[in-house]
Every structure is written in C-alpha cells, then in structure tokens.
Design brief:
The protein has 85 residues and is mainly alpha-helical. The chain has helices at residues 12-23, 30-46, 56-70, 74-83. α2 packs across α3 (56-70). It is globular, with a radius of gyration of 15 Å.
Length: 85
Amino acid sequence: MTMSIAQARVPKGLLKEANKLVEMGIYSSISEVIRDSIRRLVLEKMTGIIPFKENSVKEVRELRRQLSKGIRSFKDLEEINKSSN
C-alpha cells in the first residue's frame, strides 16, 4: 500500500507518552502509533453505524483488517461501510 505523509502538531506530553509505547516495544515506531490511533478512531466513530449481523467480534476484526490494509481515500471508507451493510 502506498503511504502518504501527513504533518501534525502534537503536544510534547502526548508525544512523550507515544514514545514510551515505542520504547516498551508495543509499537515499532511513532508512525505506527499514529496509524493505529487513526484506525481506532475511525473504528470507534463507525461503532453504532455498523449493522449487527451475526458475530460482532468477527465483523470488527474484518473491519480492522480492511482499515489497516485498504484505505487510500474517504471513498474507500464509504465502500467499507457499504460492504458491512
């Protein structure tokens, strides 16, 4: 997947906490902390709009996989949302 570069200003304290996660080995880099944070935020915002079908754990795992592998644009998010309906 092609990655894009985004710049953001982050408070020093928050960046320090993110660095601790890398130092602890939870994440391999600050970039991975940020990517995972965005994935979690998007998934959290989708909670409640995702229709419950059968196995919610399986549905959430599949959405997380799609979020981590297939998002290149907002249109991709719309397609993921449509496919979960």
